[in-house]
Write a structure and sequence with these properties.
Order of helices and strands: HEEEEEEEEEEEEEEEEEE
Strand order of the largest sheet: 4-1-8-9-7
Strand content: 35-45%
CATH architecture of the largest domain: Sandwich
Oligomer: single chain
Distance between the termini: 41 Å
């Protein structure tokens, strides 16, 4: 092999290393994604199928997206009990159903699906609601902002605090919306009619970043929280 060829191979390897260091190891192209939001007022122990490790979630906290390879059931375990949802396999994008904690789930997902499960707790135990969207960026040159409405009966509006511009004009209960934004410093407020949440400061977002907003609570007292969209990938070594 000539010096020119060796140099070309070396340059190609260096370029590949640069790409890997920039983007990190990527999950399979046909993967789907699963995460859990603790929308209750008490901590909960959760375990997700896929790449995310079991953990205790504080109130308002959200897991990273667990990466599910094809054939892996989208199973969530809450305080040692598996969430059961017989209708999961038939769910369409942005559809939600309730789940109970008494049986095994063999929920099917499709490549690129991103499932967010919100947990609530009452006298009868844990209950879950899910929203199914897609894991994709809207615009690589801007930040991606996603809004999830888990507040029953609320048509949510999200805007900049202090009568600022509207970011999401209407997100129906049980639905998701997505848009690209220029990275800005802002405080956002979620509204259900005349009721408003406390202001939520957006973190510093760069082009290509993805961030989720969650409307929880209820019509009378909406709560707005948020988290960066982060993959639990590559899987932690045993």
């Amino acid at each position: 092999m000539s010096w020119v060829a060796l140099l070309s191979v070396g340059v190609a390897h260096a370029a590949a290393d640069d790409v890997a260091s920039l983007y990190g190891p990527q999950p399979p192209a046909n993967a789907s994604y699963l995460r859990v939001l603790n929308a209750s007022s008490q901590a909960v122990r959760v375990a997700l199928a896929g790449s995310e490790a079991p953990q205790t979630l504080a109130p308002g906290a959200v897991t990273r997206f667990s990466v599910l390879t094809p054939g892996t059931p989208a199973r969530v375990t809450v305080d040692g009990k598996v969430l059961a949802d017989a209708a999961w396999a038939d769910a369409a994008a942005n559809a939600t159903t309730n789940a109970t904690t008494n049986a095994t789930t063999n929920a099917a997902t499709h490549a690129g699906d991103a499932v967010t499960v919100a947990l609530r707790h009452d006298a009868k135990g844990w209950h879950a609601t899910r929203i199914v969207g897609r894991y994709e960026r809207v615009d690589g040159l801007k930040a991606t902002l996603r809004a999830f409405n888990f507040a029953p009966g609320c048509s949510a509006k999200i805007g900049v605090d202090g009568n600022g511009p509207t970011v999401f004009a209407q997100v129906a209960a049980g639905a998701q919306d997505t848009r690209a934004i220029n990275p800005v410093n802002a405080k956002l407020v979620g509204r259900c009619g005349a009721a408003a949440s406390a202001a939520l400061p957006l973190p510093a977002l760069a082009a290509g970043d993805s961030y989720s907003l969650f409307v929880t609570g209820d019509v009378a007292k909406p709560v707005l929280s948020g988290a960066r969209d982060v993959l639990a990938w590559p899987p932690a070594a045993n």
